[in-house]
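Deliverable D4.2, example record:
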Amino acid sequence: MHLLPSFCLSQQAATSGYETPGILKASEILPPELLEGDHFKVIEEVATYDFTNRFTISTAFGQFEVIGEDMLRIRIQEILAIAALHEIKKTKAFRDAAEQVAMSPLRGARDLVIHRSIQLTEFQRESVGFLSRRMRGYGQRRV
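Output generated by the structure prediction step:
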């Protein structure tokens, strides 16, 4: 008795005219510069639904799903930027800078230990000088 209503509902959905996603070829809808580059490749099968293309980009950094050609252009620029950052990380200048940053807290701690006595002596001298000037000024004002 319950099978009849569910059968009727499934028949309704099948004949209601819902659009099934179509498949296009990326090579037929994209300019060559968006199909493939040094660090990316757009997968040939492009699902299209409701006048919107859904692209898949394959890269060394993973796969990315994007909706629409505008977002595809943006994502490709981001992928190229990531690739440029990876190239920078390979340079000697980057390694030297990273080493400097890593050593900075250690140098600060070393300087604090080595120069602590000098810093304290200067602080004490400045404090005594400040207090004696204040006391002289205080005594002169009262007289």
